[in-house]
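Q: My hope is that you can spare some time for a protein that puzzles me. Underneath my words sits a plain record pairing an amino acid chain with its backbone structure tokens. Those tokens are not coordinates but codes from a learned vocabulary of shapes. Thank you; the sequence and its tokens follow:
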Amino acid sequence: MAISDHDFELANRRGETKRAAFPAVTSVFYDRRDARIVMTLASGLQISFSPDDVQGFENSTADDLIGAEISPSGLAVHFPKLDADIYVPALLEGFLG
């Protein structure tokens, strides 16, 4: 299926709008001592949460959570060992309303 130039431009605009509304993730790591995922956002806000609070991560191990990768947009974090992603705008909306 081919994507038209118009559709491509619309998708880029939606992405820019989303990036303007939410700060990007600048760092992410799993804190083994506290058993929490820790993300720092470009705004300076640091959030941490239990993997058990994220759908699909309930049965993850500490080793599964090591080596998370930030997406190029900074709006998602990928956990390669789980082949799972956390979309940060949805995470923030879920926790902060």
Remarks:
- Helices lie at 5-21, 88-96.
